[in-house]
Amino acid sequence: MRGRLIVFEGIDGVGKTTLSRLVASALGAVWMTTPDVDDRVVRERVDRAWYEPEARQLYYAGSVVHASGAIRRHLEEGRDVVVDRYWLSTVAYSEIGGSTLDLAVVEHALVAADATVFVVLPEIERLAR
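The structure corresponding to this sequence follows.
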């Protein structure tokens, strides 16, 4: 039996990490985030030093492709996976950041989510966090 992929999307500071961890725990699922926790140092460097929006977009797209491979393996083992940020955030932040690359071909290579939860929070509360 194939596991389920549940994705939490939304802008920074709305509670994706908290909610996704709670759901993963309740389901006994694997919890993941993109970029991976082990890549936080790389992410900080990319965000700080890579000025070209296309370069940043490719980094983030690559992190999702990498996660998708791990997700696929977990699902094939019958494990549910809950992800804090996946493809939709990558696309949205790339467009906001000014990238002109069309990565639609990448999307077709990714494991599709069984459910996507879009998390929102009033701006005044988000900024207070």
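The first strand starts at residue 5 and ends at 9.
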